[in-house]
Amino acid sequence: MNHIMHVPVGVMPPQKFESVLGAEAYAGFASMFAPAKTLLEGRVIWNINSTAVGGGVAEMLRSLLTYARGADVDARWSVIQGNTDFFHITKRIHNNLHGAQGDGGPLGAVEKEKYEAALKANGEELAPLIRAEDVVILHDPQTAGLIETLKETGACIIWRCHVGLDTPNDCARRAWSFLRPYVGQADAYVFSRKAFAWEELDDSKIYIIAPSIDAFSPKNQEMAADNVIAILHTTGLIADGESTTPTFVKEDGSPGRVDRRTVMFDGGPPPPSSVSLVVQVSRWDRLKDPVGVIEGFVKYVAPASDAHLIVAGPAVAAVSDDPEGAEVLIESLEAWKAIPEDLRGRVHLACLPMDDGEENAAIVNALQRRANVVVQKSLAEGFGLTVAEAMWKARPMVASRIGGIQDQIVDGVTGLLVDDPHDLEEYGNDVRRLLEDAELSERLGAEAQVRVRKEFLGPRSLMQYTELIEKLIS
Ligand code: UDP
Questions:
Q1: Which domain holds residue 357?
Q2: pLDDT along the chain (474 residues), means of 10
Q3: Ligand 1, from 281, 328, 365: best to mutate by most atoms within 8 Å of Cβ?
Q4: Full-model pTM
Q5: Is residue 325 one of the residues assigned to a domain?
Q6: What's the rounded Cα separation, in Å, for the pair 438 and 305?
Q7: Is residue 65 part of a domain?
Q8: Which residue in 41, 153, 201, 216 is a FRET match for 372, CA 20 to 30 A apart?
Q9: Distance 283 CA to ligand 1 centre (A)
Q10: Of all atoms in ligand 1, which is nearest to the CA of residue 361?
Q11: Which CATH number goes with the domain that contains 291?
Q12: Domain match, 374 and 449 both
């Protein structure tokens, strides 16, 4: 039985970045192509995680590996398989690492046994493919248990943690204790920000690399205003719109078209194209607080404006490593049902089609571009790619002052930060302020774009990974 899925990765020339980086930054990036090729010749850079679709890690891998391959580096992406028990345990670990209880279940000897049993078969299938000169980057808790087996191949092993929290609590420490015996064996550990690095890890092996977005992917590429409307209308996210064809450019440069329908889970009609839109896009996850997004909007925004709220996430069956998705979607629907009847029609729960990842990305792109305000009211967040995505589109943002969001949004300069992520009033007031103040919105949006260009595009990540690999193998 096959446990490993090898995900096809495209090829894109990294030279594309010349058009967005600016001359000096591009020159720095381009000066690395030849040395990186020499350094990595004959080596495979394995990236291993637990899902090929949905969520930030899959998003980033698809993009970064495409440019690495375009620079003649044999970068690959493999996805492990697990059973229901395994994904419940790893979701619990994920929640704990964010400082949250999750399902409240234990992380003891039984869980350890189930976790290791699920990974054993994956490790046995992967190990024969990996050579001593290779580099293996294992992503997130799901793959930490592979480190010991894969180290026996002689390859250099990097464990990349995409989650974390600013101030550790008992939940986080419990997850660290569970994972540390595995993670400690890696040659390097990469965290998204310094504050996320765990206690009692070997300090000399800790590296910090912030995530990044792809400026050219269907998710973030430029999109004409009439095309935005055509995409949203075609998929059913707005009620009326232009009759242009809803097109986008696929990752391989070929033309793509949006055809599939978004399911409005609340059963209501989508908003008319003329209204102001407040949008949050994220997985159906309690830590993204969709219920808080709805309640804060209904209480503090809706009565004082005619704006509509769209809370959008993937069609839940599509994300295989996220067993809580359906539950959280139902909880969001319950929150929707509790909205006073006269305001209910202004809140929309959108399940975006996931059959074609690029089509889904184009829909997210159009939705973020159409939004008057983008929110990311998370209760915990490793980085929050959705923040960088909206900032890149020069959207004004309201987001919680937590995790990696703080590295992206400079409060009052590149967006607005909500100090207490549980404070619905502060969140609602900030949204209202942006809806009412067009000049402020425009200024924050413009600065946001500048910041992403400088800090959060793929070339910066690629350069940091190359430097790390060089250090480890030389
Ligand atoms: N996303 C998507 N379709 C959806 C919901 C989310 O493509 O229906 C993407 C979103 O645009 C972002 C990623 O999933 O690129 C989520 O990454 P983030 O870091 O914000 O959160 P994570 O899901 O990793 O916790």
A1: 262-455
A2: 89 94 94 95 98 86 95 97 96 94 95 97 97 98 98 98 92 97 98 93 96 95 96 96 88 94 96 97 95 98 98 81 85 98 97 94 98 96 94 98 96 98 98 98 98 95 97 93
A3: 281
A4: 0.89
A5: yes
A6: 14
A7: yes
A8: 216
A9: 6
A10: 7
A11: 3.40.50.2000
A12: yes
